[in-house]
Amino acid sequence: MKKTFAVGIDFGATQIKIGMVNPEGKVLSRKVIATPRDISPLEFGKTAKREISHIISDSGKSGKCVGVGIGVPGLVQFDKGVVLYLVNVKGWKKVPLAALLSREVGLPVWVDNDVNAMTLGEFTYGAGRGGKNIVCLTLGTGVGGGIILNGEIYRGTSYAAGEIGHIVIQEQGRECACGGKGCLEAYIGNRQIMVLGKGRYGSPKEISDAARKGDLVAAAIWKEVGTHLGVALSSVINLLNPEKIVIGGGVANAGTFLFNEVHETVRKRAMKGPADSVKIVKAQLGEDAGIIGAAVLAGIK
Ligand SMILES: [Zn+2]
Q1: Which CATH superfamily is domain 5-119+288-297 in?
Q2: How many CB atoms neighbour CB 151 within 10 A?
Q3: 139 CA to centre of ligand 1 in angstroms
Q4: What is the CA(192)–ligand 1 centre distance, in A?
Q5: What is the pLDDT of residues 212-232, one digit of tens each?
Q6: Where are the domains of the chain?
Q7: Which tens digits make up the pLDDT trace of 163-214?
Q8: Which terminal CB of the chain, N or C, has fewer other CB atoms within 10 Å?
Q9: Cα 230 to ligand 1 centre (Å)
């Protein structure tokens, strides 16, 4: 098989990360840029074009680069490469990003939702490797999800599948940013985790560090978060019967404090068959998952 390389771009609301990825799924070189506030499609196109050509020429792999993949924080019409809208970045409505950028850089360009990209990265090179039915979660400001069914990403009828953060865990629960009530995200998003800390901690990471040092309040916070997450995942497990659930994002670094409670809750709440056959594991690609996954979109392998 011909060895190919690709450029992966992880377009986040705070950072744009770009890297050249080799066929083993390793990022050879990377550049991180702070995302200008409400960056316009035109501005993004210019920045991307410049950085893509730098990274390709620096890598010395220009002849072997098969294309560019981009993961974006929003809804994407994947087969057309059109960004329908972005969350937290204004002014992006039906932007034909793949076509625009492809014309500029002279390579095929693929665009997908960022969590789908991360899911593809973990599935191809990370914690989901070798599986067929995988669910990936990313825990941060929001709760994102991606689904691999029978070895392929499942995007849904209107490209919106995988919104695990909006699984309802309380029928008459808290209002959620999506307009619904009682969604998982309204209980375990970063902001809600900080509320549980009642001002005692500066970040979810501090809560994890404190729990590790024996702070019982911090441990109790992760127990509560783990219970909510376990309840939502029990529905995912009953619905999809996946072999693995991969959990990434900053909050996953709470480690056993979080995972033990998730395992315990799933054991109690999900149906026995699917609960026995699922493994719930931490993501492996860390900060690079978005870049690597975007490169998978572009066809490295
Ligand atoms: Zn919601």
Answers
A1: ATPase, nucleotide binding domain (3.30.420.40)
A2: 10
A3: 14
A4: 13
A5: 999 999 999 999 999 999 999
A6: 5-119+288-297, 129-283
A7: 999 999 999 999 999 999 999 999 999 999 999 999 999 999 999 999 999 9
A8: N
A9: 17
